[in-house]
Amino acid sequence: MLKGYSVPLTPQGKSPLAPTPPWHYSSENIAIEYWTSPAAIAALLPPGLTPDENSNGRAFFWFLDWQFTGANDELTDPARYQYREAFVLVEARFGDMAVNYCPFIFVDNDAALARGWIQGFPKKLGSIYQTRSFSAPGPAAAPLARGSRFGASVAAHDERLATARIQLEENVVDPSTVFNRPTTIRRFFPQLEAGRQGQPPVDELTLSLVEDLRIVDVWAGAAELSIPEVAGEELHSLAPVRVGRGYRLGMAYSVTDLRILRDYAAERAVAGMQSKLRGRRSSNLQ
Description:
Elements: E1 23-35, H1 38-44, E2 50-51, E3 58-69, H2 78-81, E4 82-94, E5 97-107, H3 110-119, E6 123-125, E7 127-130, E8 149-156, E9 159-171, E10 183-189, E11 202-208, E12 211-226, E13 242-255, E14 258-263, H4 264-285
Parallel strand pairs: 5-6, 5-10
Antiparallel strand pairs: 1-3, 1-13, 2-4, 3-4, 4-5, 7-8, 8-9, 9-12, 10-11, 11-14, 12-13
């Protein structure tokens, strides 16, 4: 019997890219608040999400330095389970609920890529860096203190996609005043069979569920963000028209579940069946 939560399935089940949940994450992060074109956000939203008119194009660009573990002490295998990531969250609405939506995300690790696809994050491989803080004082230590400067960048295929800079000014006592929206994502797995390639078997709008979320040591300050146009990428469609505050913070949470908000594949199947029934009724009437 072949075992494994994800591929590859093997007799011992030790090779899958993604282990069975729960998944536990800890990270150091840089986040840039900015405003982009509301029309660009609207064009990227899947059915069921609408632009948040009160946000007027507000988004966050995140850079994250992650450490992961599951149930098998994966944090002691950093070559496989440490990784870096960068993504955009745009503000939207699902009915009456204020949410974020993730249209673009880059990661530098295959295990993280697999976990992301399972959740619905549209992860692509990239090269991500950010300034780190160290406990020993010195010019390169970047302490969490007023005046410290941090930088971050993401590139793909040797082309720089985004660059950020922040300078810390003040501590944020209540992180929920800044980071207070759940994240929605789209789980999408295409079909290869000829004649059915427009019928993905998995196509869902999901709500990311996190447990034991902790956001600590939040600092805010002045920020810069640039997102140039790069051939073969569309991240620049969300380039900033105005940049707000920058944030440096620590974050940890666990993932064991997600919530399906809409099942587009099931909706299409029902619509197709209803169309066939209407066609049969029309034929019988003739």
